[in-house]
Every structure is written in structure tokens, then in C-alpha cells.
Amino acid sequence: MIKSYQKPNVLWSIFLTIALATAHTASAQNRLDLYIKEGLETNQSIKQQNFMLEKNIYALSEAKSMFLPNVAFSTTYTKADGGRTIDIPVGDMMNGVYSTLNQLTGSNSFPQLQNQQVLINPDNFYDAKFRITQPILNAELNYNKKIRIKQVDLQKTEVLLYKRELVKEIKTAYYNYLKASNAVKIYESYLALVREGERVNKKLLDNGKINRTALVRSQNEVSKIEASIVTAIKAQESARYYFNFLLNRPQTDSILIDDITALPDDNNLLDENIGNREELSKLKIAKGINEDLTGLAKSYLIPKVGASLDLGSQAFDWKFNNQSRYYLFGVSLEWNLFGFGRNSSRIKQTLAEQQAISSQTDYVQQQLLTELKVRQASMESAVAEYKAAQSQLKTSQTYYTDISKLYREGMSIYIELLDAQNQWVDAQLQANIALFDTWIAFTAIERANASFNIQ
């Protein structure tokens, strides 16, 4: 009788983990939830979108401030010489009168005057003032404020869209990492199994119980599994690098994993509601912005009314007194009555854009609905593959148990045992792949119907 060898406990634990996949729910993925939260807080793309949101919020504050008074200070100083003058014949008009008065009074109290030439350009003159302006009626400001508000909402939706896409990428990368990690464990457990077989076969060969073929085959199997482990580890490392990249962490950071052994909840499989998609929300907001742009184009029909108040001082030689100080209050009205077709052309542009947005909305709705149906079909296919893999796993395990028993009793050759082992391990790998493919397909559905709740 050929001596049997012990199966490693790790191999049995992995088999039990996969075989009991329908015995647990998957609601306790606490580590994944924490990773998603971390990713939403640290991802560079999300940070860039938040900066854009902050910019739009400041633009809205600017639009609101346009309704408030504006205070400005301005001053001018003029130094002039030459140029046009105004001739004032003061001497010609007054000197004869003054001479007569001096003769009558017997004095020189009334001097002779010179004719004057006054520069039109003010010389050594300053004008300093505070100007306060206040819009009273301005439809353009109202529409500009409405547009800015909607642009903030649009950017908020854009941030949410980036977050939703990031959640999908994080979850997909996480499941790919778990898939690769489990594959490494399966291969390592199988390597321990074939190495034990190699040890036993070598001992049996030394005792003349078997020929060299079984030993050579077991040695080849060890080499093959070692190569498979290297490939699986590289796949695991690549999955870890990408996952850490999404979370903006060092690529070599370790990843804590959840014990996922069950299929995802299929309550959302038949839900065809795409109303929560951010793409549709963006189009809805864009339509509102376009309507405001149409109103802005039509605002020329409403006159603009404003008021201004100047408080200042103006005088020569930098004098400042009661005579130099002044105030000037005014009310202005501006009404664009005719623009040679510019206004009507601008209105027609916004109306054409509005029709384009409506057409695009219909197209995007159909596109998103088609995407959801395709994702649901992929999920159904993944579930079917998982069930088939579970059936194959059970069959291969039974087959391996039977062949192992026959081999221990000397009624089967090592090649048959090795074939049963390979079938069993392949079934474990396929069950592992099928399990996480269902989660990846479910993540795609969450993205397609926007059902994941983003905090």
C-alpha cells in the first residue's frame, strides 16, 4: 500500500471559504467602506474639481456684490501753459471810470487795471472726489446672478459625478486585488500539496515502489505552480499599485481585506431607473442656464436705471475750503432701443442651443438606459458563471476525494491523482474569479443606475 500524505490545512480553509459563498451576506464590508471614504477625501481629481467648485462659488459672490453700492476714489491734477485764452477787457471798461473817481476824490484810491487773458486749460488745478454708484434697475445683473447660481449647482454635480466614478474604480480595483490575493493563496496551498507529493514520490522511488515517471511529473508540477505563483503575485502587486493610486497613497502600502464569501444583493438588478444619473442632472442644469441666457439676451428691452453721488473738492493751488468742496448727485437711464439685429441674433442663438440640449438629453437618456441593461445582462451572466463554477468545484472536490482514496489503496496511479488535483485547483480558481466578477458586475450596475449612496 502506498503511504498517504497530509493535505495542508490552508487548502481546506480556502476551499471552505469559496464553497460556503452562499451562506453569508456581504453587508459588512467595513474596510472597503473606509477605503471609499478615504479615496473621496484624498483623490487628486476630486480635489481639482473641488477647487473648480470653490472658484464658481466666488464667482457667485461677485455676481451678488454687483447689486450693492460701489465706492471709488479718483483725483486729477492739471498743470497747463499756453493754448487758447479768453480775453477780458477789464482795463478798457473800468480805467476811464476809475480816473474820473480819482479826480473827484482827489486821491489815487482807484488804480488802473490791465486787460486780462485767461487760459481755457486750468492751470495748477485739482479735482478729488469719492463716487458712489448704485444700480437701481438692471436686468442683466439679475440674469447674471441666476446663471452663476446654476453654474455652482453644475459644478457640484460635476464633483458628484467624479466621486461616483471614483467609487466604481475603487471598488473594482479592490475586488481585483482580492481576486489576485485569493489566487496567490490557492496556488501557495497547492504548491505545498505537490511538494508533499514530490517528497513522497521520491521516497517511494528510493524504495523501488514506483518508477521515475511519477517523480518527474511531480517535479514538473512543482515548477509549474512556482511559475504560476510568480505570475499571481505580480498580478496582485499591480492590483495593489492601482488601488493605492486611486487613494493617493504610496503604491507599496498594504491593503486590509474584507471576508467576501457571498454574492451581492440583487435587489437592484431589475431596477431600470436612471433618474439619479449626474449626466442627466448636468443637462437639466445646462438647460436652465440656457434659459437664463435667453432672458439675458432679451434684457435689452428693459432700461437700465442707476444713481450716482460725487463727494469731492476742486480748486486751484491745492486750496481746500468751503468754496472748494462740492457734491454732485445724478440719476442715469440707459435704454438700448435698436441694435441692427444684434439682439435678435443673440436670442436666436440661445434658442437654437436650447433645442440642441433637449435633443442631447433624449439621446443621453437612451444611452444610459442601454448601458444599464447591458450591465444587468453582464451581472446575470456573472451569476450564472458563479453557479456553474460552484457546481464544478463540488464535482472536482468529490472526484479528487475519490481518486485520493483509490491512490492510498494502491488502485490508482499518481498521474490520475495529479489530474484530479489539477481539476480541483482549477475549479477553485474559477470559483474565485466568478465570485469577484459578480461583485465587479454589480459595481458596474451601481454606477449605471447611480444607486450607491455617496456621502
UniProtKB/TrEMBL annotation:
Signal peptide boundaries: 1-28
Subcellular location: Cell outer membrane
UniProt cross-references to SUPFAM superfamilies, sorted A to Z: Outer membrane efflux proteins (OEP)
GO terms of molecular function: efflux transmembrane transporter activity; porin activity
Pfam families: OEP
Keyword vocabulary terms for this entry: Cell outer membrane, Membrane, Signal, Transmembrane, Transmembrane beta strand, Transport
One cellular component term from this protein's GO annotations in UniProt: efflux pump complex
Family per similarity comment: Belongs to the outer membrane factor (OMF) (TC 1.B.17) family.
PANTHER family per UniProt: OUTER MEMBRANE PROTEIN TOLC
The protein's name in its UniProt record: Outer membrane protein TolC
Organism: Olivibacter domesticus
Lineage summary: Bacteria, Pseudomonadati, Bacteroidota, Sphingobacteriia, Sphingobacteriales
